[in-house]
């Protein structure tokens, strides 16, 4: 709300920023009035091309089609590594901070170049070539970044699967991608606990005939099974590999990677990003949103298994020749000061995290923060979910000592790069608002009938014109791309989010308006969780909704109907939670399971989730109209049994 307190750009920040308000306004206007000229200038400045493009943009949202910089040739790995060598060979590219505080590595651009070149040759030696899909299932170790860049170097399409996903979830993604190789580690370590990655990979790979190679990085030296035909140690492969690997010059529109993400229906979709547009916009936004300047130490706490890790640990920062910090652990191990100790140890200047982490740390009190120095910090950022004003204030006051602007960045796996966020030297902040659009981004608001809304109001958030890093297709299913993003409002990209635009033109993201949950910043489809629950022999039907959760943002509330003769028990609750863990991963485990005598359905059999959300939220006074239900009595039964839920 505009009457709420605003936070002007601190004077000290204004003096050294890359971009002031006037320049932002001018650039933004040009990017809307003449996008092709704007993006051509940026593409010249920020990327190195082997062959220049012929056409800047060519797109049609009615067909869900977008292409940028066609005719151009480049290589993403070359742009992130090789081209920096003349000036930055001895500069640290990646600071790796291990799970234990005494473990760290500094990898220079020269070392990165050598590792990635050998890794690329190791993949080639196993027959991996341009266009092949390679799945990466790794802990947060530098080899995860090497693996991504090695794929990019030879034109193979990587698909990183978050290390917290289960073997089943991994298998689904490998099969959907038709991958020929998997890159993993023996085990991962997080918060002092071991994650059995290779054992999970073994399970996933049984039945995945397309995978002929499994490259294994030794992280812990723990006991693992081995398949001589398929498995190869990373260190052995690298020792044999040639040190020189010419980058493969790919077309601008050749895919760089796919990344699976959840939607309202069906299994996760493989979001396809292509090379030039993605790299350009991730580099541009990294530079200006984080005000990244030479010598800055930059830390994004995400996992490389998510889009944030792709764009803002690996591609954006490295394309800009930055020093990017990669942390293997969790914010509370060995104790709740860990993040701030890492900030002090490495003199981190820019820190980018998720509201859920801020809320979790806020819950531990101020002392773990205030006992650290943090004077190196100049800028803070958030991503992944709306930030509540209380968490924003704490982050600003306690962590940033009212010195550091906070960039609240709204974007999605599908957008590839930050879409709405303040440029910290240009835009005054309002806690909870992602503020103003990035260059080239034209947000809009729609009413339920598909009419575009003007002025200060709320509605469904759409984007009105293509941007370089937008999703190109859903892997193997272009129709699904059209149905999901371009059908609700023909001619517009539909984000799935609701938003409000205030009197100052500031954007406030209110959260998903579809059946997608945001649990601790992790995106989950209710349909996926329901499919897992109904695999249990005692369950006939399941409906999952989100409810407000103090730390996670949203918690998972599962209504389950029992098969005739089955009984609800603590044992069954445990079995159901284990089942979801096995099918998807621990992040999808329901917080609450409600044995429902029946589910509220319309006469045509559609479950009325609106009512289920109200019951989950305990907002029983505002259930709304229940007269269209096939059996309105179901609602009373649900209210009665609510107290008994697990
Ligand atoms: O609902 C929005 C929320 O996260 C969704 C995208 O999730 P994912 O594709 O996993 O990407 C997360 C990291 C980019 C969005 O549809 N979201 C993301 N950032 C914000 C946000 N909601 C509010 N404020 C944000 N800054």
From TrEMBL:
Q: What is its EC number?
A: 6.2.1.1
Q: Where does CoA bind?
A: 190-193, 308, 520
Whether Nucleotide-binding counts among this entry's keywords is yes
Needed cofactors: Mg(2+)
Q: Which family does it belong to?
A: Belongs to the ATP-dependent AMP-binding enzyme family.
Reactions it catalyzes: acetate + ATP + CoA = acetyl-CoA + AMP + diphosphate
Q: What does this protein do?
A: Catalyzes the conversion of acetate into acetyl-CoA (AcCoA), an essential intermediate at the junction of anabolic and catabolic pathways. AcsA undergoes a two-step reaction. In the first half reaction, AcsA combines acetate with ATP to form acetyl-adenylate (AcAMP) intermediate. In the second half reaction, it can then transfer the acetyl group from AcAMP to the sulfhydryl group of CoA, forming the product AcCoA.
Question: Which organism's genome codes for this protein?
Answer: Alloalcanivorax venustensis ISO4
Q: Give a short account of its post-translational modification.
A: Acetylated. Deacetylation by the SIR2-homolog deacetylase activates the enzyme.
Q: Which InterPro entries match?
A: Ac_CoA_lig, ACAS_N, AMP-bd_C, AMP-bd_C_sf, AMP-dep_synth/lig_dom, ANL_N_sf
Name of the protein described by the UniProt record: Acetyl-coenzyme A synthetase
Keywords tagged on the record: Acetylation, ATP-binding, Ligase, Magnesium, Metal-binding, Nucleotide-binding
